[in-house]
Amino acid sequence: MQSDTRTSRIVEPLFRLWSHVYDLGVFQAYYGRVHDRILGLAPDRIESALDVGCGTGELLVKLARRWPEARLAGLDLSVDMLAQAAAKPSLAEVELVQGSVYELPFPDGSFELVTNTLSSHFYRDFPAAAHELCRVTAPGGLLVMASLGNGPARLLPGALGRQTRLGATIHRSPVEQRRLLEAAGLVVERVEPLCPIAWLYLARRP
Fold first, then answer.
1. Can you list the alpha helix ranges (DSSP code H) found in the chain?
2. Which pTM value belongs to this model?
3. Residue 180: CATH number of its domain
C-alpha cells in the first residue's frame, strides 16, 4: 500500500488490520489471479524486479519462485504489511523497504521489471508516482501495473469521466491512467480489463 501523508493518516489503521487477513484464501483468490496475470506478461528471464506497494509479499513469493537468482525488492508504506512479508521464509533474501512511491529509495534504472498491484487509487499525486515508477525502471524495462478503475463513470464526458474521488482514494479511467503514464515518459504497450473493476497496464521505459 502506498499513499501520501494525508492519505496515510486515514488508511494506515485500516491496513494495520488488513495486514492480518490479507493472506487468507478468500482474498488471495482474487489477488492471486491478478498476480498470475502480471507474471504472465513478465519476461522469461530477469535479473532484477521491484514490487511497489508489495503488501504482505505474496507477489514477491511468486517472483522469488520463478527467478530465484534475481535481485528482488519490495516497497510498501505500511510497516505492518512489511512485517507480515518479512516473516515468510521464502522472502528471506528479498530486500523489503518501508517508503513512499513518491520518493523511491533506489537509483535510476535499477530494475528490469517493476510491478504495482491494486494500490494506485491511493496515489493522490499520480503524475509524481508515475514519474518515480518510470525513473527506477531500467531503459527497455517493463512496468506492469494493475489498478482499480472508475467503473461506468469512465463513460461520462469531461473531468467526470477521467477520474472519480471516493473518500481518500482516486479511481482513474483507463484512458486517463494511460495518458498519465505516457506523460511520465513510459510507452504504454497494452491496456486490458483485469477481473471486475480493474485494469492492467503494460508499459516500457524507452
1. 5-18, 25-41, 58-66, 79-86, 126-136, 158-162, 174-183
2. 0.92
3. 3.40.50.150
Domain encompassing residue 160: 5-204
Residue 99 C-alpha cell reads as 517508503
Nearest to 58 by CA among 107, 13, 25: 25
User: What does the DSSP 8-state code read for residue 152?
Assistant: G
User: CA 2 → CA 9, 45, 54, 103, 123, distances in Å?
Assistant: 12, 27, 9, 11, 7
Summarize pLDDT for 24-71 with one digit per residue, the tens.
Answer: 766 778 889 999 999 999 999 999 999 999 999 999 999 999 999 999
Looking at the structure of the chain, the number of domains it has is 1
Taking only the tens place, the pLDDT of each residue in 74-111 is 999 999 999 999 999 999 999 999 999 999 999 999 99
Q: Which of 118, 128, 137 is nearest to 28 (CA)?
A: 118
Query: Can you state the angle between helices 79-86 and 5-18, rounded to 10 degrees?
Result: 40
